[in-house]
Amino acid sequence: MDRTNLSDRNAVFVAGAVAQALGHDIADMSFSRSTIRRCRASGRKQAAETDRKSFSPDEPLLLHWDGKLLPDIQNTTASRIAIVVTFNGQEKLLGVPKKERETGEAQAEACLEAIKSWNVEKLVKGLVFDTTASNTGLHRGACVRIEDELEQELVWIACRHHVLEIMLSDVFSLICGSTGSPETILFKRFKKQWRSISLNDFIPAPESIFWHEAPMAVRAPFNDLQLMKVLKEYPHEKVAHAAQAAISRHLWYLSEHLIGLSLFDDRIDTETKKNMVQNFQCPKKQDFSRRIVLSDETPISNVASFVTERTLDIFDVLTLDGKERAQLF
After folding, report:
1. pLDDT at residue number 1
2. For the chain, which has fewer Cβ within 10 Å, the N-terminal or C-terminal residue?
3. pTM of the full predicted structure?
4. 251 with 224: CB under 8 angstroms?
């Protein structure tokens, strides 16, 4: 009944109809909305407890969370945080708690409560998040708070789509102007005329490849470097400057951790990958930054130059003894 979103009142009618179809005399039976409600609540609680006890992964977990406004009782909306862990191609929803505030503290608190209640906090090796200030703040962000509570350095994996959306938003605002309206008039016109637009005449720009490959994390480090090169040669100077400024604030995938993903990128030649492995011997940077800031001297064509000993941590996201195995390269 829960899966079909039946109300308690309608559930009474369904239960009565089923009982009658099975040959029972409903006159001798008691059906009440309150009884149905209590039974459903008890069933949900039992199912949740069984699910929680049966969940016992033995692999590294990535912790994902995102805040959403969802319908609540009395035709209102409530702020909830969806909390998920992923591992080995699987995902598990841990909860969708209601939170009155969307601060970094509130989100970190919700995530920590969830992973502790499921007894998986020791398996969390990485964080996946949108690049909002409440998540990424250096002192009060959710990521920092979760790391401090778990007392370990985690791999931060910023949402790739969100990063590219920020760049697109800045360029759009430059060309079309910023707006305080929740709706953009240009988009509304496109929506009205969409059926009459010849889609066969659409010619994708070379830059669109970065959006198409956004879900492919292993390509992100090299794509960031390629995008920076494209923007340096982009003919529209103001657009290039706005795009460069935006993407330069979000070079998460060139960090000492995530640069290791390039080892799995089939576009990176063998010689470069050998250099990456050799650079595992380079000491960790003391001023470890999750977001790399490129200077004019930074070799933007060489992923190996970003690799250090800290890069080995990325292998612990893949398997519990990943770093130990990687050191045998």
Report:
1. 63
2. C
3. 0.83
4. yes
